[in-house]
């Protein structure tokens, strides 16, 4: 009788330990670098470069709603929803590749019909935003500063688009101001 009680107790202990060991880890996403909220995003055409030459472009102002969560202060993912009708992934990525440290945020999306062609068609553009938090007192990068971010907005058409063997590249400074 006593052997049955010990065996039943041991099985219960194994069941508890087994259930604890297989639990999915919960990540606290409160590292202070998360981007959650509404931002005014200004791509400044007054300082635009077209194929590395300063040429004024139209300034573009849009509103983004961003959500993100992090598994470390250098690894975050999320989503951007623009009031211009597009949605794209958001990641804190820094230099891409093995061993990279999260240094800046990245948003990639495709702009349909971006480069007008002489024949009336248009080529898509691959738009990439890179941005990071800025300490307004020191003007240094600080990803824990999530109310003001700055960076680059670069859009490229592929080489060969529109029958031209040179990609069109427009690079503009971008500023993100948290609204809510």
Any key phrases for this structure?
single chain; 1 helix; mainly beta; Lipocalin; 180 residues; disordered N terminus; 8-stranded antiparallel beta barrel; elongated
Q: What can you see in these coordinates?
A:
The protein is mainly beta and 180 residues long. The protein has one domain: Lipocalin (Beta Barrel). The protein contains one helix and ten strands; from the N terminus they run αββββββββββ. β2 and β3 form a beta hairpin. 20% of the residues are buried.
**Beta strand %:** over 45%
Radius of gyration: 24 Å
Total beta-strand segments: 10
Number of helices: 1
In the CATH classification, which architecture applies? Answer: Beta Barrel
* Portion of residues within helices: 10-25%
* Alpha carbon gap, first and last residue: 67 Å
Q: For the report, how would you describe the main beta sheet?
A: 8 strands, antiparallel, barrel
The CATH class, by name, is Mainly Beta
Strand order of the largest sheet: 1-4-5-6-7-8-9-10
Class computed from helices, strands and strand pairing: mainly beta
Give the overall silhouette. elongated
Quick summary:
11% of the residues lie in helices and 45% in strands.
Blueprint (SSEs and pairs):
Blueprint: H1 2-21, E1 37-43, E2 49-50, E3 53-54, E4 60-72, E5 75-82, E6 87-92, E7 105-116, E8 122-133, E9 148-156, E10 169-178
Antiparallel strand pairs: 1-4, 1-10, 2-3, 2-10, 4-5, 5-6, 6-7, 7-8, 8-9, 9-10
């Amino acid at each position: 009788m006593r052997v049955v009680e010990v065996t039943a107790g041991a099985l219960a202990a194994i069941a508890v330990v087994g259930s604890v060991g297989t639990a999915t880890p919960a990540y606290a996403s409160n590292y202070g670098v998360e981007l959650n909220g509404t931002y005014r995003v200004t791509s400044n055409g007054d300082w635009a470069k077209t194929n590395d030459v300063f040429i004024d472009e139209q300034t573009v102002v849009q509103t983004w709603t961003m959500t993100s969560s992090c598994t470390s202060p250098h690894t975050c993912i999320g989503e951007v929803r623009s009031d211009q009708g597009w949605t794209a992934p958001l990641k804190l990525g820094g230099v891409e590749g093995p061993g990279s440290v999260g240094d800046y945020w990245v948003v990639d999306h495709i702009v349909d019909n971006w480069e007008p062609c002489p024949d009336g068609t248009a080529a898509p553009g691959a738009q990439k935003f890179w941005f990071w938090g800025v300490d307004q007192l020191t003007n240094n990068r600080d990803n824990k500063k999530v109310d003001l971010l700055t960076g680059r907005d670069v859009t490229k058409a592929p080489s060969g688009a529109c029958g031209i063997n040179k990609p069109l590249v427009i690079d503009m400074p971008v500023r993100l101001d948290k609204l809510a």
